[in-house]
Amino acid sequence: MNDYKDWYTKTITLKTFAEGEMLHGVYIKGKEILKDIKCDVQPTNYKQFYSEYGYSIDSEYTVFCDVDIDLKAGEIVIYNNNDYSIDKLVDWDDYYILYLKAV
């Protein structure tokens, strides 16, 4: 954990799926796995991303959270009952910055 944890007043939920399996010739989809992650969420827009970070990303939120090996670009998270894709993940010294885009 880092010193930023006091800022983490919000929660995103990482939505992943366990590996599926073949059962009697039929593929059975893996179970949905939900993992809550404490974080700080800030609204953002394309212009702000580009001017502050130089990224051409049309995302809606910037999320700051502790490093978590389960978080990866392209994964789906739930915030305020809406699904978002992790458009970009930046791994800083001791925390992640995620850019979320609605799916």
Distance between the termini: 30 Å
Strands of the widest sheet, in order across it, are 1-4-5-8-7-6
Series of secondary-structure elements, N-terminal to C-terminal: EEEEHEEEE
Low-pLDDT parts are none
Structural class: mainly beta
Overall shape: elongated
Strand percentage, roughly? over 45%
Report helical residue fraction: under 10%
Task: Summarize the biggest pleated sheet.
Answer: 6 strands, antiparallel, barrel
Could you characterize what this model shows?
By secondary structure, the protein is mostly beta strands. The protein has one helix at residues 46-53, and strands spanning 10-17, 21-23, 26-28, 32-43, 61-66, 76-79, 82-91, 95-102. The strands form two sheets. Strands 1-4-5-8-7-6 form a six-stranded antiparallel β-barrel.
Summarize the structure.
It is built from 1 helix and 8 strands, in the order ββββαββββ.
List keywords for this structure.
two-stranded antiparallel ribbon; mainly beta; 103 residues; 1 helix; 6-stranded antiparallel beta barrel; elongated
Topology:
Elements (H helix, E strand, L loop, with lengths): L9 E8 L3 E3 L2 E3 L3 E12 L2 H8 L7 E6 L9 E4 L2 E10 L3 E8 L1
Antiparallel strand pairs: 1-4, 1-6, 2-3, 4-5, 5-8, 6-7, 7-8
